[in-house]
Amino acid sequence: MKLLLALLVLVLLAVPTSGARWLSRLLVVRRAAALWNRRRRSRRRAPVCKDVLSVVPKHEWKCTPAKKKHVWKNVTKWHKTKNNVTKWTNATRNVTRSESVEYTLPVEDFIGLAKEHISEDLLASFEAGVASDQNRNFGATCTDTSEPVAHVGWGPSQAAKSTLICQLRKSPEDLCPEIGDGSGESVTTTVSVWDSIVGIMVDTIGLGDSLLRYSKEEIGKLVAAAMGRIAAVDVKRVKFLVFESLANDALQLRDTLLNLFKIFGEEVRSSIIVIATKPNMKPGEAGVKRLRKIQEVMSQQGLRELVIWNGPERDETSVDDLMAAVGRVSSVPISELDDFWERVMRKAQDLCEHQSPRTKNITIHVLEEYLVPETVEEEVEVNYTEPEKFLEQYEGENCSYHEITETIKVTECT
Q: Do strands 149-154 and 237-245 pair parallel, antiparallel, or not at all (unpaired)?
């Protein structure tokens, strides 16, 4: 039928006609097709329907009483493993450190400074001289003859100290010290004690020893030691015979007196007799000037007893003058002499006690403890979390959906 309709359409389209006629033909074709369709539906069979039984699934909520249930819980567990662990062990080592410390000097380190202070103070006092009201009454005669007195010679080398002792011997047959031979070399080598018409005489080494064997301080120490020995044999007092040689072009009296005061203290002024030796070596006006200068220095230091010792042979006038001067001056106890080295130690001790602390950096070696790291393998326990099923007791219901089947009637059409 479809094929016939198609052929009809082709025929109608193939016949040449005007536009109006072609449109009318198309409408005829459409109507014919619609008519054919209605006839075809009218000839179709009517459906047959019937009721049938059908089984279908169904879900329902169902609860049952329950007292136990399984639950999952996270449980912490431990297991053993091996890890690298750092351990620290004690060790010692030598360490060099620089450290600032306070310290004080021992008293021995102040001896040199003490000598300087004493010398400076003494020089200042010596240069200031002695005031006129401090001068002694030289017209008075000393009467301290109850005790033996030693007469200590003190002066430069080659000033006729040993020669004077030899000329004061009680007898020409008596021994006496060795005297100089005119060469200018020092002869006396030690401190010695002699007897004379004046009394006990102490011959000493000359200051400025030409052979450079002793310093002035060492000579003073030897003389002090000798006085300690004579004090042990009941000679408790001393007088000092200070020598100045006119044969020497340089005036040495100041230096001689200054060293005497330095060694034994300025308290010995009252016991000093100045002896000007070898006046025959400086005759005339030169000798007069020199004696005038000696007297000027003596006046500055409060000294009045001056004896001119004529030579070279023994001169009785000089001996008499010396005996008279010895009788006029007072002696000083050996125990009261202000020993130079005792003064030095007292001054050094004072300087030591009043010193300010000093600081210095020192290097010290000490044993130091420290920690040494060491890596070792060690068994350790490590925790971890794992879920675990537990049966839990409780009072309740277990509810869940259950699937069931149900038969229903349905209509089916064929």
A: parallel
